[in-house]
Amino acid sequence: MAVTMVSPRPSFSEAFYASLQEVADGERIRTCLQCGTCSGVCPFGYLMDFPPSRMIAALRARMFDRVLKTDTVWMCVSCYACTQVCPSKIPLTAGLMARTKEEMVLAGHVPTELQDALEKTLHYGNPLGESPRKRADWALGLDPPVPILRQVRRPVDVLWFVGDYASYHPRVQRVSRALVRVLNALGVDFGILGPEEQSDGDSLRLAGERGLFERLAEKNGRAFRRYTFREIITTDPHAYNALKNAYPELGIAYPVRHYTQFLAERLDQLRPLLKRELKARVTFHDPCYLGRVNGVYEEPRALLEAIPGVTLVEMSHNRSTSLCCGGGGGGMWLDGFQWEKARVRLSEWRVREAVAIKADILAVACPYEPPRFEDAIKMVEGASRLVVKDIAELLAEAMEEA
Ligand code: SF4
Ligand code: SF4
I need a surface site. Which of 9, 48, 93, 121 has the fewest CB within 10 A? Predict the structure, then answer.
């Protein structure tokens, strides 16, 4: 990306500092110890001109304009690792990094592929640029049909917020169909919004497009209000994070759970249905927005351990120290840009960890991950026998007749 100079604004650092006070706990930035722990743990910190601790030092020196002249923030994948380790509990990911990205977006300094995703979302309600009318096409031909609320016009127990990649990406559509099999086997009364569903917008918010995020949230909120349901489940940890933590700030508040939480609560009912032995060493990749951000670590593991024949093994980075797949916070649309600088993908580091512990299956629970890890497997030596499966796919397979 060609980065052009941003006009210096004499009071910009002060104004930026003040704007951070609007972020929850933003005032804590004043308590930074300059210990550098955040920069040390950042997966791409070594490639940033201004990793988080240096950004704060520049802010204090009233030289934040210099940060905006670099492409530092576009190496941030919003993984929350820095926020997690900061001893001063400074909201680095959702505060400092997201606010800085907002400034870059306002100034028009956005890598082309991210700009493309932002424009597609603005026009079509999803970053893939697919037709909103095709949002439920992944469910065509399923028997029984997946209830689309505006067609069935009845209350349901559970509204399934499917999300962008689980709706449109061919690899992840397989995960959606697997989850339908599991929900039907459990007799869950569920429905989806279909064409009325918009992107949850969380990754766009963390990539600096807060205005677009709010617009999408308002549209989803209007759709929710049209129907009667008891709770929302979602396949996407980013949607889960948005619905749980960010939508309520906009007055859109519903009980929401990730599908692994919902299913883990029904383990007693699920276990007798899991008859087929899978006989595999399985390791679980904690998605940043399920684990580190929202503390959901045990439910996915409980589901995997319920599958006959599964031996659960842990990678060296697991739970709160899980390595990011590189897809969050706009990373899905910065792959080319980051590859130019790093010559490695974060997903490849993760695949190497799974290979090191001789896992047969890399289990995932986020729609960004099957395509990212399957791509990484092609690049990592010795990884060709590793298989990537969403937990929903493994459960559905274990339900099949042997
Ligand atoms: S980890 Fe926290 S206290 Fe330490 S340098 Fe980073 S922001 Fe400052
Ligand atoms: S959120 Fe992750 S990628 Fe972004 S600065 Fe923090 S540690 Fe680095």
Answer: 9
Identify the residue with better confidence: 303 or 26: 303
Query: Which residue has the CA at smallest separation from atom 6 of ligand 1?
Result: 38
The CB of 220 under 6 Å from ligand 1? The reply is: no
User: Which CATH code of 3.40.50.1860, 3.30.420.40, 2.60.40.10, 3.40.980.10 fits the domain covering 113-264?
Assistant: 3.40.50.1860
Q: Which of 20, 28, 88, 89 to mutate to test the pocket of ligand 1 (most atoms within 8 A of CB)?
A: 88
Q: Exposed, middle or buried: residue 194 (CB in 10 Å: 0-12, 13-18, 19+)?
A: buried
**Cα 279 to the center of its chain, rounded Å:** 29
pLDDT single digits (tens) 89-142: 999 999 999 999 999 999 999 999 999 999 999 999 999 999 999 999 999 999
Q: SS3 for 191? A: strand
**Mean local confidence (pLDDT), 65-78:** 95
* CB of residue 82 inside a 6 A radius of ligand 2: yes
Q: How far is the CA of 77 from the centre of ligand 2 (A)?
A: 6
- Is the pLDDT at 4 greater than 80, yes or no? no
> What is the residue extent of each domain of the chain?
12-109, 113-264, 274-399
Which CATH number applies to 12-109?
A: 1.10.1060
The confidence score (pLDDT) of residue 43 equals: 96
H helices, E strands: number in the chain: 20, 8
* Cα(281)–Cα(146) distance, integer angstroms: 33
35 Cβ below 6 A of ligand 1: yes
Give the global pTM.
0.95
Position in ligand 2 atom list of the atom nearest CA 45: 8
**The pLDDT of residue 5:** 52
| 12-109 and 274-399 agree in CATH topology | no
